[in-house]
From TrEMBL:
InterPro entries, per database record: 4Fe4S_Fe-S-bd, 4Fe4S_Fe_S_CS
Any GO MF annotation of the entry: iron-sulfur cluster binding
Keyword Protein transport: no
Taxonomic classification: Bacteria, Pseudomonadati, Thermodesulfobacteriota, Desulfovibrionia, Desulfovibrionales
Name the record gives this protein: Hydrogenase
Listed PROSITE patterns: 4FE4S_FER_1, 4FE4S_FER_2
Short name of one Pfam family: Fer4_9
Record's keyword terms, sorted: Iron, Iron-sulfur, Metal-binding
Chain ranges of the 4Fe-4S ferredoxin-type domain: 34-63, 67-96
Length: 184
């Protein structure tokens, strides 16, 4: 009886130690599991998420116009492999606590995005445009390259552009290091 009175007194003085939900926001741990979300602006369609998905909840269908990414939320086991291995950090888990649904709706719980190809600015090949943030990150060390321009080039044209830029840089360094007698 003394233990009960002691606990009651502590609750009166310090308040209860439970979550305020539904009267306030509940605590959500950092690694809480909810719904898988994809940021279509960051996704490059590499397929790594589909490859590492143990439950087979992610499907990518490609066609001539682009690709469609489908995530079956009810098939997902929320292992976070897609979030961990996505090279662009396009996958995330939304801590959605309101995901209860009736059995008939289980096939409607999908997230689907269609990402269209755009033509390469140099050769016209259909491609996915790189995000501006990713282009800035990749080409931060080279001030001569415009990230806005480079992100609209396909992989092959980016390689050609990088090779041309390297050649120009090498020629500049050869000219600047040549002795004065050779320049004359």
């Amino acid at each position: 009886m003394a233990t009960f009175l002691n606990t009651l007194l502590q609750n009166i003085i310090y308040g209860p130690a439970t979550d305020p939900f539904p009267f306030g926001e509940t605590f959500s741990p950092k690694r809480v599991r909810g719904l898988i979300r994809i940021d279509r602006d960051l996704c490059l369609g590499c397929g790594m998420c589909r490859h590492v998905c143990a439950a087979g909840a992610i499907n990518i269908q490609r066609n001539s116009q682009g690709w469609t990414i489908t995530i079956w939320q009810d098939s997902c086991c929320l292992c976070r492999s897609c979030v961990t291995y996505c090279p662009m950090q396009a996958m995330s888990i939304d801590p959605d606590w309101h995901s209860a649904h009736v059995e008939e709706d289980k096939y409607k719980r999908i997230e689907q995005h269609t990402i269209s190809y755009q033509p390469c600015a140099r050769c016209g090949t259909p491609m996915r445009v790189m995000s501006l943030d990713r282009a800035r990150e990749l080409y931060a060390a080279d001030p001569d390259i415009d990230p806005e321009e480079i992100r609209h080039l396909c992989r092959s044209c980016r390689q050609i552009r990088d090779a041309e830029q390297s050649t120009v840089c090498m020629l500049r360094s050869d000219i600047s290091t040549a002795p004065a007698a050779e320049k004359a």
